[in-house]
Amino acid sequence: MESGGNSLPSIGTDGGKRKVCYFYDQEVGNYYYGQGHPMKPHRIRMTHALLSRYGLLGQMHMFSPNPARDRDLCRFHSDDYISFLRSVTPETQQDQIRALKRFNVGEDCPVFDGLYSFCQTYAGASVGGAVKLNHGFDIAVNWSGGLHHAKKCEASGFCYVNDIVLAILELLKQHERVLYVDIDIHHGDGVEEAFYTTDRVMTVSFHKFGDYFPGTGDIRDIGYGKGKYYSLNVPLDDGIDDESYQSLFKPIVGKVMEVFRPGAVVLQCGADSLSGDRLGCFNLSIKGHAECVKYMRSFNVPLLLLGGGGYTIRNVARCWCYETGVALGVELEDKMPPHEYYEYFGPDYTLHVAPSNMENKNTRQQLDEIRSKLLDYLSKLRHAPSVQFQERPPETEFPEADEDQEDLDDRHDRDSDMEIDDPKHYDETPRRSSTAVPSIRIKRENADNDPLNQDMHAAKGPEAVVEEVSYSKALDINSTLDEAVSGMKVEQDTSVKQTDSSSIIYPKS
Ligand SMILES: [Zn+2]
Question: Which positions in this protein are listed as binding a divalent metal cation (predicted)?
Fold first, then answer.
């Protein structure tokens, strides 16, 4: 397969090394969604073990994430939702039936031991990665992140807090424009919704569409208001193979890079788009999936690599290990080195697995139509939009980091993590019927139009007045973005403006 070859003339070759950092929490593999649940954080630990045995850890700066604090999470999420996640426990959840329902916690998104610290860990790692990119790293990796379905006030699709939105908000402190690309088999609905009405974040999601969770992601959904043409959706059908996938991915993403010119890119590498996934229905090989990583890397723009879905966990570990190699510019041997989870990879004990012979339901004609429709949208997008004069907010400060930790403890209870569960229970059928998709009704806070004059916490409290807005998906992103660029929300009105002498004014480009 062709590699590299982006359309930006100024980039040069792709061969150079990149300064890569990697976030890993040694406890992350111990979180357990419950018996029968397909989401298994243990896959992160399996990935880590492979990275270690392939000798990749020594080639990256490794960090143990600082847990995201309430106020970090509340840069996107509502206060009442976060305080619910903080307080709910498996023992007490029966006393909070109304709240469980309201926040969509219970079935797909169960309450489990340590739920909140799990959220703090994976979100802290993604935000930490964004901070590193803002400080000169080329690539930051967090395989525990990428939980793209979480909404401002609601859990969804195994996701509780949206680490991606939080990381993008962090990147927006430094970059005028951020590109989000999503290759999970499911539509990246939570991220799209958060940035649906802004031109500072472009979202591009490649996903199975039609009678499939979460039901959104129609090709006609392209953003709203200022954000029109800044959300792109690439709807795909069962059995898509590497060649068909790249026949869309490269032309579309290449054109996006050319016209949008992002300062940073976030790539959600959900591995449920691989062949043989327990919940997925695509037919990508690991190399085909990783080709997306290789292509994004070739642009030499700061790149945040995140995990996401992936439910045949041995293949998830294979994929993310191989993609870490791609990030580092290292080609890994197919024969796998022995390690503590070696028995998962039999009988071949190889890194790569052959795709299946399933039918590719995406016809050449359909693919051509999708590509030309999206290129047509992109032709309407004006080049490199820019923001007005902005103050640069203070960055998220974490204590000095535990760099280059080696040989973290990999204890593991195998019994609880082998894939013996019944997949039927988690068929991920759409929650909403797909016909209802284009008209999601979003609650919007009734707030003063000038975010500088309001108390955001008060506006976000449980008693906040809400009004239904009738257009398709516009979230309250204007205030989110204003917060992102002014940093005023969390720190409140005592005001960054007056106290932060490091604020700079950067001009419109
Ligand atoms: Zn998924």
Answer: 184, 186, 272
